[in-house]
Amino acid sequence: MRSAETQARILIVDDEPQIIRVLRTSLSTQGYLVRTASNGVEALTIATEWQPNLVITDISMPQMNGVELCRDLRSHSQVPIIVLSVREQDRQKIEALDAGADDYVTKPFSIQELQARVRAQLRRQQAATPAPQQEIQAGDFLIQLAQHRVFVRGKEIHLTPKQFDILVYLAQHPGQMLTHRAILHAVWGTTADQPEYLRVNIGQLRKKIETSDEPRYILTEPWIGYRFRPTGDESY
Length: 236
Description:
By secondary structure, the chain is α/β, with parallel strands linked by helices.
Protein backbone atom coordinates (compact mmCIF):
# COMPACT_ATOMS: atom_id res chain seq x y z
CA MET A 1 0.00 0.00 0.00
CA ARG A 2 1.39 3.42 -0.91
CA SER A 3 1.70 6.05 1.78
CA ALA A 4 -0.39 9.22 1.78
CA GLU A 5 2.77 11.17 0.90
CA THR A 6 3.45 9.22 -2.29
CA GLN A 7 -0.18 9.51 -3.34
CA ALA A 8 0.33 13.27 -3.45
CA ARG A 9 -0.61 15.17 -6.61
CA ILE A 10 2.31 17.06 -8.16
CA LEU A 11 2.00 19.63 -10.93
CA ILE A 12 5.15 20.19 -13.04
CA VAL A 13 5.35 23.44 -15.02
CA ASP A 14 8.13 23.86 -17.60
CA ASP A 15 8.35 24.73 -21.29
CA GLU A 16 11.24 22.31 -21.91
CA PRO A 17 9.83 18.90 -22.99
CA GLN A 18 12.97 17.10 -21.85
CA ILE A 19 12.70 18.49 -18.30
CA ILE A 20 8.99 17.61 -18.22
CA ARG A 21 9.72 14.08 -19.39
CA VAL A 22 12.51 13.46 -16.85
CA LEU A 23 10.58 14.88 -13.90
CA ARG A 24 7.34 13.13 -14.78
CA THR A 25 9.11 9.78 -15.08
CA SER A 26 11.18 10.13 -11.90
CA LEU A 27 8.27 11.32 -9.75
CA SER A 28 5.75 8.87 -11.19
CA THR A 29 8.05 5.95 -10.39
CA GLN A 30 8.05 7.17 -6.77
CA GLY A 31 4.27 6.74 -6.70
CA TYR A 32 3.28 10.39 -7.05
CA LEU A 33 0.34 11.41 -9.23
CA VAL A 34 1.76 13.79 -11.82
CA ARG A 35 0.31 16.30 -14.29
CA THR A 36 2.25 18.77 -16.43
CA ALA A 37 1.86 22.21 -17.99
CA SER A 38 4.08 24.15 -20.40
CA ASN A 39 3.34 27.64 -19.03
CA GLY A 40 1.80 29.46 -16.09
CA VAL A 41 -1.57 30.08 -17.70
CA GLU A 42 -2.10 26.40 -18.38
CA ALA A 43 -0.82 25.58 -14.88
CA LEU A 44 -3.40 27.84 -13.20
CA THR A 45 -6.23 26.09 -15.01
CA ILE A 46 -4.95 22.66 -13.97
CA ALA A 47 -4.33 23.81 -10.38
CA THR A 48 -7.91 25.03 -10.05
CA GLU A 49 -9.42 21.82 -11.37
CA TRP A 50 -6.96 19.30 -9.89
CA GLN A 51 -5.88 20.94 -6.60
CA PRO A 52 -2.27 19.64 -6.52
CA ASN A 53 -0.43 19.06 -3.24
CA LEU A 54 2.79 20.49 -4.69
CA VAL A 55 3.83 22.63 -7.66
CA ILE A 56 7.27 22.48 -9.31
CA THR A 57 7.78 25.35 -11.74
CA ASP A 58 10.48 26.77 -13.98
CA ILE A 59 11.06 30.53 -13.86
CA SER A 60 11.47 31.40 -17.55
CA MET A 61 8.36 30.45 -19.53
CA PRO A 62 6.17 32.02 -22.22
CA GLN A 63 2.78 33.66 -21.51
CA MET A 64 3.22 33.61 -17.71
CA ASN A 65 6.59 33.05 -16.03
CA GLY A 66 7.28 31.27 -12.75
CA VAL A 67 7.34 34.44 -10.65
CA GLU A 68 3.92 35.49 -11.91
CA LEU A 69 2.63 31.96 -11.35
CA CYS A 70 3.83 31.97 -7.74
CA ARG A 71 2.19 35.32 -7.13
CA ASP A 72 -1.10 34.22 -8.68
CA LEU A 73 -1.19 30.90 -6.80
CA ARG A 74 -0.42 32.62 -3.51
CA SER A 75 -3.37 34.99 -3.92
CA HIS A 76 -5.71 32.08 -3.14
CA SER A 77 -3.70 28.97 -2.23
CA GLN A 78 -1.02 27.77 0.20
CA VAL A 79 0.14 24.88 -1.99
CA PRO A 80 3.92 24.32 -1.61
CA ILE A 81 5.92 25.63 -4.59
CA ILE A 82 9.42 24.58 -5.64
CA VAL A 83 11.09 26.80 -8.25
CA LEU A 84 13.59 25.55 -10.84
CA SER A 85 16.24 28.12 -11.77
CA VAL A 86 19.64 28.42 -13.43
CA ARG A 87 22.61 30.01 -11.70
CA GLU A 88 22.24 33.26 -13.66
CA GLN A 89 18.67 33.75 -12.42
CA ASP A 90 19.47 34.80 -8.84
CA ARG A 91 17.37 37.94 -9.10
CA GLN A 92 14.35 36.07 -10.48
CA LYS A 93 14.85 33.35 -7.86
CA ILE A 94 14.63 35.96 -5.09
CA GLU A 95 11.55 37.47 -6.75
CA ALA A 96 9.94 34.02 -6.85
CA LEU A 97 10.64 33.46 -3.15
CA ASP A 98 9.22 36.89 -2.35
CA ALA A 99 6.18 36.01 -4.47
CA GLY A 100 5.51 32.93 -2.34
CA ALA A 101 7.76 30.07 -3.51
CA ASP A 102 8.81 27.75 -0.66
CA ASP A 103 12.05 26.36 -2.05
CA TYR A 104 14.26 26.30 -5.15
CA VAL A 105 16.53 23.90 -7.01
CA THR A 106 19.29 25.18 -9.30
CA LYS A 107 19.72 23.62 -12.73
CA PRO A 108 21.43 21.32 -13.45
CA PHE A 109 20.22 19.35 -10.44
CA SER A 110 20.23 15.72 -9.38
CA ILE A 111 16.92 13.87 -9.34
CA GLN A 112 17.75 12.62 -5.84
CA GLU A 113 18.08 16.20 -4.57
CA LEU A 114 14.76 17.20 -6.12
CA GLN A 115 13.01 14.13 -4.72
CA ALA A 116 14.36 14.95 -1.25
CA ARG A 117 13.06 18.51 -1.47
CA VAL A 118 9.68 17.22 -2.68
CA ARG A 119 9.46 14.87 0.31
CA ALA A 120 10.40 17.67 2.70
CA GLN A 121 7.74 20.03 1.36
CA LEU A 122 5.05 17.35 1.44
CA ARG A 123 5.94 16.45 5.03
CA ARG A 124 5.69 20.11 6.06
CA GLN A 125 2.35 20.42 4.29
CA GLN A 126 0.99 17.29 5.96
CA ALA A 127 2.15 18.46 9.40
CA ALA A 128 0.55 21.86 8.87
CA THR A 129 -2.78 20.56 7.56
CA PRO A 130 -5.44 21.13 10.24
CA ALA A 131 -8.38 18.86 10.91
CA PRO A 132 -11.31 19.54 8.58
CA GLN A 133 -13.13 22.64 9.74
CA GLN A 134 -16.74 22.03 10.70
CA GLU A 135 -17.82 25.61 11.30
CA ILE A 136 -16.60 29.17 11.41
CA GLN A 137 -17.58 31.28 14.39
CA ALA A 138 -16.47 34.90 14.21
CA GLY A 139 -18.11 37.97 15.66
CA ASP A 140 -21.78 38.04 14.76
CA PHE A 141 -21.43 35.08 12.37
CA LEU A 142 -21.79 31.33 12.72
CA ILE A 143 -21.21 29.40 9.49
CA GLN A 144 -21.90 25.66 9.49
CA LEU A 145 -19.85 24.45 6.53
CA ALA A 146 -21.20 20.93 5.99
CA GLN A 147 -24.83 22.00 6.38
CA HIS A 148 -24.40 25.21 4.33
CA ARG A 149 -26.18 27.18 7.05
CA VAL A 150 -25.41 30.74 8.12
CA PHE A 151 -26.52 32.53 11.28
CA VAL A 152 -26.02 36.26 11.75
CA ARG A 153 -26.66 37.66 15.24
CA GLY A 154 -28.37 34.35 16.05
CA LYS A 155 -30.78 34.50 13.11
CA GLU A 156 -30.49 32.10 10.18
CA ILE A 157 -30.20 33.66 6.74
CA HIS A 158 -30.51 31.88 3.41
CA LEU A 159 -27.81 32.35 0.80
CA THR A 160 -27.29 31.14 -2.74
CA PRO A 161 -24.32 28.78 -3.21
CA LYS A 162 -22.10 31.59 -4.58
CA GLN A 163 -23.08 33.98 -1.79
CA PHE A 164 -22.26 31.24 0.72
CA ASP A 165 -18.86 30.60 -0.88
CA ILE A 166 -18.04 34.33 -0.86
CA LEU A 167 -19.00 34.68 2.80
CA VAL A 168 -16.95 31.61 3.77
CA TYR A 169 -13.87 33.00 1.99
CA LEU A 170 -14.32 36.40 3.64
CA ALA A 171 -14.84 34.82 7.06
CA GLN A 172 -11.68 32.75 6.66
CA HIS A 173 -9.72 36.01 6.27
CA PRO A 174 -11.24 38.43 8.81
CA GLY A 175 -9.83 41.93 8.74
CA GLN A 176 -7.70 41.26 5.68
CA MET A 177 -7.86 43.29 2.50
CA LEU A 178 -8.91 40.80 -0.19
CA THR A 179 -8.52 41.79 -3.82
CA HIS A 180 -11.27 41.34 -6.40
CA ARG A 181 -9.02 38.88 -8.21
CA ALA A 182 -8.34 36.76 -5.10
CA ILE A 183 -12.05 36.43 -4.33
CA LEU A 184 -12.94 35.70 -7.95
CA HIS A 185 -10.29 32.98 -8.13
CA ALA A 186 -11.34 31.44 -4.80
CA VAL A 187 -15.06 31.33 -5.68
CA TRP A 188 -15.24 31.08 -9.48
CA GLY A 189 -11.79 29.69 -10.35
CA THR A 190 -8.75 31.20 -12.03
CA THR A 191 -10.47 31.65 -15.39
CA ALA A 192 -12.91 34.17 -13.88
CA ASP A 193 -12.22 37.74 -14.95
CA GLN A 194 -15.63 39.37 -14.62
CA PRO A 195 -15.65 41.64 -11.53
CA GLU A 196 -19.34 42.39 -12.10
CA TYR A 197 -20.15 38.82 -10.96
CA LEU A 198 -18.54 39.65 -7.65
CA ARG A 199 -20.12 43.10 -7.30
CA VAL A 200 -23.61 41.74 -7.90
CA ASN A 201 -23.19 38.92 -5.39
CA ILE A 202 -21.60 41.18 -2.78
CA GLY A 203 -24.55 43.57 -3.17
CA GLN A 204 -27.04 40.75 -2.67
CA LEU A 205 -25.08 39.38 0.28
CA ARG A 206 -25.02 42.78 1.95
CA LYS A 207 -28.81 43.07 1.69
CA LYS A 208 -29.12 39.84 3.68
CA ILE A 209 -26.55 40.45 6.43
CA GLU A 210 -26.21 44.21 6.90
CA THR A 211 -28.42 46.14 9.30
CA SER A 212 -28.33 49.46 7.42
CA ASP A 213 -27.48 50.99 4.07
CA GLU A 214 -23.99 51.77 5.40
CA PRO A 215 -22.05 48.47 5.33
CA ARG A 216 -20.64 47.35 8.68
CA TYR A 217 -19.48 43.85 7.85
CA ILE A 218 -18.26 43.92 4.23
CA LEU A 219 -16.30 47.07 3.57
CA THR A 220 -15.30 48.22 0.10
CA GLU A 221 -11.65 49.03 -0.50
CA PRO A 222 -11.96 51.34 -3.55
CA TRP A 223 -10.39 49.95 -6.73
CA ILE A 224 -8.88 47.04 -4.78
CA GLY A 225 -11.41 44.70 -3.17
CA TYR A 226 -13.20 44.08 0.13
CA ARG A 227 -12.48 43.72 3.85
CA PHE A 228 -14.63 41.62 6.20
CA ARG A 229 -15.33 42.79 9.77
CA PRO A 230 -17.25 39.98 11.53
CA THR A 231 -18.05 42.14 14.57
CA GLY A 232 -19.23 45.07 12.51
CA ASP A 233 -16.88 47.46 14.29
CA GLU A 234 -13.28 48.61 14.05
CA SER A 235 -11.90 45.77 16.19
CA TYR A 236 -10.85 44.12 12.90
